[in-house]
Amino acid sequence: MRIVGLTGGIASGKSTVSNLFKSHGVPVVDADLVAHDVIRKGTGGWKKVVAAFGNDILLENGEIDRACLGQIVFSDSTKRQLLNRLLAPYISSDIFWEVMKLWLKGSKVIVLDIPLLFEAKMDKWTAPIIVVWVDPETQVQRLMARDGIPEEQARNKINAQTALDWKKTKADIVINNSGTIEETKLQFQEVLNQVTRPLTWKELALSREGVFWVFLSAIVGILVVQKNLK
Ligand SMILES: CC(C)(COP(=O)(O)OP(=O)(O)OC[C@H]1O[C@@H](n2cnc3c(N)ncnc32)[C@H](O)[C@@H]1O)[C@@H](O)C(=O)NCCC(=O)NCCS
Ligand SMILES: Nc1ncnc2c1ncn2[C@@H]1O[C@H](COP(=O)(O)OP(=O)(O)OP(=O)(O)O)[C@@H](O)[C@H]1O
């Protein structure tokens, strides 16, 4: 199995690229969706977050008001680190199970869309690593437009993350999403070819079929040895 890492900065275009993967039949595990799931009302993550941040972050229906929690953590690095610490175990274990489900289904190539791939040190489990890069001014403008927030808030969110230029230096593949969607789609086609090329022997051995054949060979080997010993 090939586990491709997809990361970038906030509003750099990760979801845009992951939607392209999905539309070409490559399954994607979306860490943002997982992060939303682990703080649903009544879950372990919800309890931890409410205990740490208080009832003021709750909506009337008891769900966490993510916009409100976002305002708190994107302007205070200590609180952000606290939230990251509380949720990291839940997020990583859920991502692991999502990967296992895809492995059991026999998926050969999957994409992990994880904004904090490097920060959470999950980059070691993925190869190749794709970084969706955008120039700084376009990033601010797109974030302001998408979230309907003022420039200062947008810059707070961007500064809450490791610099996108640094992430770019760690990438195996960079998609420059500063231009039009059409330009991104052109780059994507090349990336798709690269990512879906035949699996290496190691990747093959880690796929469901690979494990099956290793297991079957071991059983046959044992039976042959036992027969020869009789
Ligand atoms: C802060 C929260 C409540 C804001 O929720 P909201 O729905 O408004 O935003 P959403 O979850 O869609 O995140 C939007 C983007 O913000 C950035 N972001 C989210 N959390 C963080 C963080 N802890 N540090 C830096 N950037 C972050 C990512 O680029 C993400 O794609 C939420 O993002 C959260 O619970 N974050 C902590 C969990 C986490 O680490 N998520 C990232 C997945 S690895
Ligand atoms: N090439 C592009 N041209 C114009 N707009 C774009 C382009 N790529 C993405 N956008 C827009 O920019 C915004 C951010 O893109 P997207 O949601 O894909 O980023 P993201 O990295 O997934 O964000 P987040 O980190 O918040 O999850 C969206 O409103 C999207 O429609």
UniProtKB/TrEMBL annotation:
GO terms for cellular component: cytoplasm. PROSITE patterns: DPCK. Pfam families: CoaE. One of its GO terms (molecular function) is dephospho-CoA kinase activity. InterPro entries: Depp_CoAkinase, P-loop_NTPase. Pathway: Cofactor biosynthesis; coenzyme A biosynthesis; CoA from (R)-pantothenate: step 5/5. Its EC number is 2.7.1.24. CDD domains: DPCK. SUPFAM superfamilies: P-loop containing nucleoside triphosphate hydrolases. The keyword ATP-binding applies. Keywords: ATP-binding, Nucleotide-binding. GO terms for biological process: coenzyme A biosynthetic process. Catalyzes the phosphorylation of the 3'-hydroxyl group of dephosphocoenzyme A to form coenzyme A. HAMAP family: Dephospho_CoA_kinase. Belongs to the CoaE family. This is Dephospho-CoA kinase. The gene is LOC120107924.
